[in-house]
Amino acid sequence: MHDLLISMTEFFKSMGVWGLALNSCIESFFLVPPPDFLLIFMDLAKPEKALYYAFICTIASAVGGAIGYAIGYWGGRPAFNFLFRNHKDKFEAVEKLYNQYGSIAVFFSAFTPIPYKIFTISSGILNMNFWKFFIVSVIGRGARFFLVSIVLMFFGAWIKQYLELIILAVTLVIVVFFVILYKKRKSLIKPLPEVVKNDDV
């Protein structure tokens, strides 16, 4: 799997800007490497084009999100189960987040490491208002990609010097994020109250 992800990243990389756009689009509804890796590489190579690359990522990812929405809308749960056969239980979790947070759940999936593709397809299944979904997706994806590009545009030279340490730090942050998310999720799951039998009354 690791070799496959590396091969896909190299494939997108060989296509330049078109590869960045294709990677960003497909990642919004299918299992391919996140475009962040390619975006970081291109930003470091040409920091003067960092904002342009972020713009490409944002638009292409939002278009991919719309494709994911259409897959969910027309394909329903069977399409979700086919694409995420090892994560069928995720739909129920996404549905709960929608019921609790609405479109804000889409924003956080677009901005954070939470798999955005699961939310794009689920949004179609749950028949969320398309334009609300699309606008929130653009804002979330744009905030994520422009934040990365702006940081690299101003601190690219320094980041190159300490790249290995930064990668380690980012990895630790992501791990801590998911640990907190997992613990919070467990704390929200409360045991069901015991049913009182008629014989015991």
Low-confidence stretches: 188-201
Question: Level of helix content?
Answer: over 70%
The major pleated sheet works out as: none
> End-to-end distance, in Å?
57 Å
Element string (H = helix, E = strand)? HHHHHHHHH
Strand content: under 5%
Number of strands: 0
Number of helices: 9
Cα shape: globular
Rg result: 19 Å
Assembly state of the chains shown:
single chain
Structural class by secondary-structure content: mainly alpha
Q: Name the average pLDDT.
A: 83
What report would you give on this structure?
- The chain has 201 residues and is an all-alpha fold.
- The protein is built from nine helices and no strands.
- Helix 3 runs antiparallel to helix 4, helix 4 (50-83) crosses helix 8 (130-161) and helix 6 (103-111) runs parallel beside helix 8.
- It is globular.
- The model is unreliable at 188-201 (pLDDT under 50).
